[in-house]
Each structure stands twice: as C-alpha cells, then as structure tokens.
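Technical appendix A lists one of the benchmark inputs used to test multi-chain prediction within the project. The record comprises two sequence entries:
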Amino acid sequence: LVIGGGATGAGVAWDAALRGLDVVLVERGDLATGTSGRFHGLLHSGGRYAVKDPSAADECARENVLVRHVAADCIEDTGGFFVTTPFDDPGYADRFAEGCRQTGVPCEEIEPSLALREEPRLNPRISRVFRVPDASIDVWKLVWALSRGAQERGTRVLPYHEAVAVHRNGDRVLGCRVRNARTGEELDIEARVTVSATGAWAGRIAGLAGVEGVEVQPGRGIMIAMNHRLVNTVVNRCKMPADGDIIVPIRTVSVIGTTDQHTDDPDDHTVLQDDVDAMLEDGEQLIPGFKDARALRVWTGVRPLFEDRKQHGSSDTRDVTRAHALLDHQQRDGVSGFLTIVGGKLTTYRLMAQETVDAVCHQLGDWRPCTTATERLPGSEHGDYYHVGERLARREQHLFDDQLVCECELISRRQFEDSIRRRGTTDLDDIRRLLRLGMGPCQGGFCVYRAAGILHGLNGIDTSQANAALLDYVRERWKGVWPILYGDQLRQARFDEWVFQGMLDIEHLP
Amino acid sequence: MSPSLSYDVVVLGAGVAGLTAATRLAEGGARVCVLAKGVGSTHLAPGTVDVLGYAPDRVESPSAALGDFIAAHPDHPYASIGADHLAAAIDWFAEKIEHGPQPGYAYVGGLDRNHLLPTAAGAIRPSALVPETMAAGDARAGAPVCVVGMRVLRDFHPALCAGNLQRAGIAARAVAVDLDVGRMEANAVGLARRFDAPAFRAAFAARLLPLLRAGERVALPAVLGARDPHGAWSELQERLGRAVFEIPTLPPSAAGIRVYDALRAALRAAGGRLVIGAEVHEVEREGERVSAVTAHTSGHASTYRCGWVVLATGGFHSGGITLASDWRASETALALPLHGMPARDEPRFAADYFGPQPMSTVGVAVDGSLRAHGTENVFVAGAALPGAVSWREGSGEGVAISSGSAVAQAVIERSGVAASA
C-alpha cells in the first residue's frame, strides 16, 4: 500500500509493480496535486547544490541521466545555464566550477557572448556562464506515466481517497482506512507493507500510525508563471541558492522560483504581496524588462524538508538538506510493515522509490532487483524528448477534421473528450493537469465555456454538474491570478470578467 | 515635420462611448475626428444595451430603480448624468440603429422594463434595449424553446443552455445542425456573413424545420447576418413559421459589430471622421488645455490640433488604463489623474471571484460635468469613467451611450460650435 500520489508515491508504485509486487496506491486528491504538481518543473543537473550540498548534487547528477533515459517524453532538453550577474559574488563561480567537478555535475564554462546569443534576453552584464544539463520536466505527464505503467502491471490506483486511519496490530501496521472524497464511502485496505510517500504531510500519516517524531518542516515557496518563453534554457543565478534565482522554460510558459518560508500548515497556499514584488525584482536582475513582461499566475508549493532536530538547530528551511530520508519504522520505532519516505526533490524521485522498495523487499523477506533505471515509462518507449512544437505539429495534421477547445494550449475537442471519458471526471481541474486546459494567457476565458458545454452530456454529466464544473474552474483559476494581476494580464482578466459575468452571467446560473 | 490637421473636437476611442460622443458632436455642428488604436468593445460585447441589470438583485425596471441606485452610488457616472439625460440618450441610440445601414434592423424595449434574455450558458440576463432579433427569447414568454446549435460553431453549446433554461422552469431542449462551411470550425462573425446570403438561410431553414416541434420558439446563436440581420431573422421566422431569437455567445460578436457599423455610418453621415490604427504618442498642452495630439497612422505621424478632447479609451480591459507591476496605474493616452485607486497597503483584488474587487471602480478623475481633473478641455466618457462596475451591474452600454451623449452636450454648450455651424 502506497499512500501519496505525487512523483514519489507513483514512483514507488511503478518500481514495486515492476518487481512484481501487488500494489495499491491511494491519494487524497488527484494525482500530483500536492508538492509535485506545485513546483517549477526543473529537472536538476545538480549544479544548484554543487557548493552547498554536495551529496544532493551528486544524486541529482546521477538521477538526471537516468530520468532522461526512462521518462524522455516528459522532458524537454532545454539545457541550463548558471550565470554570474553583477549582483552576485564573483568569487562564487570558481567554487561552483570546483563543486561541479567534485560532485560529477557535467559543467562547461562558456563565453558570456555565446550565452547571450542563445538567450538574448539575459542581462548583458553577466560575467561568467556555465552550461549544465538542466532540463524541464512535465510533472503531470511523469506522474501519469508512472501511474499508467503501474496500472498496466496490476496496480490499483485510487485518486480522491484520503487515508483516515492506519490499522495496527501491536507493533505491526496492517494497512489503512481510506475515505472516498467524492462519495464519502470508506474502504479498508490490508497490506503487508504500508509506505507513506506523503511529503509535507508525512508527520500526519505517521501520527495516524501512532509513530512519534516524524517531523517534516514544510518550506513554502512561491512560483510565478510568465507568459511566453522568456528563455529557452533553464537559467540559474550562479550564487548560493536563494530566492528567485531560477527561471525554467516549460511548455508554453517560463516559471520563476522560488522563495522559502517555514510554514506550519502545508495546505496553506497564501501568497504574500511582498514575495511577489521581490520575485519580480529578482527576475529583473536576470532578465531586464522582466517586470514589464506578462505574468500569468502565481502559486505556492511546499517542500517536504525533513531534518533530525537533534542534530540541526537552524530555522532557515533552506539550510536543511535537500537529500531524502527513508524511515524504516521497524528499525526506528519498532513498528513493522511501515515505511516513510520523505524529503528529496522531484529529480531524485526514482532513487527514493528504489530505496523504498528495496526496504519493502527487505521487510517482506523477498529480494527482487529494481529495474526502474532501465525500464522506460509508457509514452517514453521511443526515447525522444518532448519538444515545444509538438502540439502545433499535431494540430496541423488535424486542422480540417477536429476543433480546438483551447487555443492557448492547442487542445483539440477529440483529446478533450477522450480525457473526460478516460478519467470519468466532472472536474475540469483534473483535465487541466492532463491537458493543460486553461493554463495559457487567457486563463480559461475562452475554453471554459466550451469545455463545460462539451462536458455536459458526456458520461451522462448533467446540467448541474456542468454548471459546477464551470464555476469551480473559474474560481480555481482566479486563485492563482488575483495576487499577480497587472499589465496585460489584468486586461485579460477584465476581458474574462466581461465574458463570464457580462455575456454568460454565470453568477446567476439557475 | 508632421502634417497638421485641425478639428473642433478630437475623440479618442471608437467604442460605443466614443462613437456616440463624436456623432452627437458632429450632429451638433462640430468638426470631429475620432482617433482610435483599434475598434472598441463592440466587437466583443453581446450587442444588447444594458442600462441597469443588477443592483445587486435583478432589476425589473431600470427607470424605477435608477433613483435609488444613484442615491446609493454617488460616485457612479449615472449620478452625474442623471436619469433624464440617460433616457434621452438611449432613445437617440435606438433611432440611430433604426436609420442605420442594416435595412429594417431595430432595437426594442427601453428603460421601463428589462428584457430577461437567456445567455449562451442558459442563465437569464436583464437588458433594457435589445436587438429585435433577440427579443423573443424573453424568459417570461410562454412557448417552449428549442435551442439550436451548429456543430461547426464551437462557441455555442445548446444542450448546456437548454439544460439551464429547464432548471429555470422554461421548457427547453437542444438540437444540433450540421452546416457545410468548408471547414471544421467557424466563429459567430464568419457565420453571420453567411446568413446575409438568402440561399444559405433557405438551406439552413430546410435542415432545421424537420427537427422542430409544434409551438416551439427557436433559439440560435447570434449569427443571423452581418449586413442584413433583419432580412435573415425575418426570413427564418417566415420559413420556420415561428418566433426565432438570437443568443449572444463568445466573441467575436456579430450583434456587437452591427452596433459599430451603425454608429460609424451615423458619424460619417453627420460629417465626422474616423481614423482607426491611430495611437496617441504625443500630447501638446497649453496650460490646462490639451491643444493637440500626435498619432502615428499609416507609417507617419499626424498632429491633430483641437479645441476640445473627449477621452473614451475605456478602462483596464481596453488598455485605456494600465497597471504596472509596481502597482502604479496610469491613463495611457493623456496621462490624466485617476480616481478610486486603492492605497498601497490596501487590497487591490479580493480572493472571492464574485466578491467586490477594489480595482474595479478605478477610472479617470472627473468633475460633475465629466471633465477630467486638471484640464479645461478634456471630457471623459464610457468605461474610462470611475465608479461603475459595468459587467456586474449590467450597465456598460447605458454608461457608454449616456456619458458619450453627456460630454457631447457639455462640449457644445461650452464651445458654441452649434451656434457657429
């Protein structure tokens, strides 16, 4: 039993399924709606940790190569730069190069003029540039591929099922009770080993199991999606990791991240105005004119940073290691059949899964080798990277036999209908994570009415469900829009208000 | 040296407010030129004249509700314009459409009673004055409704519309018709042009007729003609033997463009000039007077000297006002001072999508005669004015037409152009 349907949990399910284990995965929301679905999309080369956290850098460097191999379809091979801007300590660059050399992060120093030819929007006053194999990774595609692969090998995947109790018999965990978030029905799941891959929520699950002292420090960070690809290469500031020092080009947008603030509640997604303002200033240092570019959306993610408080006293969550921790509660607490995997980062999801399932095999007394380093995920069998023109190319093939639902993300009616039927969902946000519906510049202004109209009647979805889908989605989009409304995006939001509140009058739907 | 042109009044913006002001000024004898970056919101708007739809409950009669509304909203443009002027302006508008370039096309209704028309989502929306082609959709009319979609039009979903009408207690069902337009998708404006052709109407009616049941009214997306909507609508009513009505749907809007075409024709008939693609780049001032604006058109700069300026460039939605990332807002053409901006430490937007949004009432600061603060000769009309939340109140066209008309009158009174004409 795997609790948690983020990249780590789905990775554990895939790994265990490949080893022939009988697996069930439960997730309280949709897959990849926790921390996984709320990050910037960077597949680390390891460069970011080369100086500060060499063991994390080393892990990233090795995993980067493996994940590129097995999940190519989820990855755009953007490459990455570390650039020294006039605002950065010039001495850091040499330490960075040395750190990369020692940790095995592939790194090549190039002329700033060459970097500026490749990325003309970069600050022209950059003095040093290192090229590293950073990439961008579509986390929803990844988690869905992991989940689909696991399902093809017999895994049961239950999204919208929240663990509400962990069953114990003496010092043994026997499984858990889950509640269907949509129907309220409860279900008991028995398992010989239960894995908690719940990230920032791991303390709660451990608490349900009666295991003390699993303390996760949730570190909240904001990310801002800018319209268009301001850069086509991942750009990092060459300095000690801090706020607002990464810009990741992913799909149709570029994402700048991030901040780091301790939070007590991992479900608190408050965006502070000062954080937004500071992030825009940071962006301006990397890309002059950044503040005048169009910002689409802001959101927060919560890092699941795990520390043993007996050894560290620091309160800055950025100082906590990015490395992960596998807690074997048999060794740690004398509770068998229960493992917690926590910490780490998306880039190392595979390694975390491997170590976890190794421990599962150990507890089961049934050793089976891990094959996730070589077995390609569904959709990635060909080994070709995603490229940004893919949807346009497909659209051109169907120009005369299919309609567009979403112009921004080039989603066709057929794709949309197939996804609704396959998912059996009435929630347009689920479809957003599959297809990127409404994630472009208009943030749903045109596509949401169309989507609700098409949804209506599919799978027997009735009018009240279609209305709810429409209203929920408009409200959901607004959440990430209003804290960052200015410039052209404010103009867009006003237009959307005319469509939704003026023309369609959705507030007064019966 | 750019060529210099001289007008009594330069109007900035070619939406309903700008075209109303310019036409009324031209009709009053002024030499008027409209400069606009592009066409206005007409091309996106449903084509109805909304005067007061929600306050905040649904308004049955705008004329009855206006007094209380104005008393409760002293900063609203209606408070400066007054109910009487508003009523006269709406009549003027209806008359312009009736004598406009679309033969026989007319608006029906007025301030006494709102029409209650279905939206494309099937909500019921109040509008004061509406195209004749929409009026039969009133929710209070008894006949059951057959909502007709066209598969080629992805911007109209008849089943959702019909489903919500049913929920509102109106007998309704949906059907879809296949149209051969040579491709998989068309928008409302493309289809409207097709409906100008009698042969297309006849073929459409022939396909639709067998799908209809006795006693049903027919709802169609607002695609019934660009140049000849009256002809298209009456011919369909005749061929189908029943009431037919249009429902506005996603932009671009055929019904809205009819308004633009009608007002543009009225402006030209009155001797006014309209220049589209003219963005203001420079402003000349003499004291508190704007004496000339320079716009780039057709690849060169032209300077327009003027005695008076009407600013009708709209709000945030049209780019008339912008908000920078450092949260400074500005009026983009003349850099006029704004009214209603939340203070730096106050919220600008609220988390509740349907809640009050502090930024929504920002506009150019004006006095009681709609003259911009800090100027002697600049008047402001339409969505550039502060105080209205048109998309929530259902007051967009009412504000545009009445304020356009009011500033025209203000300029004429002050300049004496009518007397000299």
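Chain B touches chain A through 54 residues (CB under 8 Å). DSSP finds twelve helices and 19 strands in chain B. Comparable benchmark entries are summarised in Table A2.
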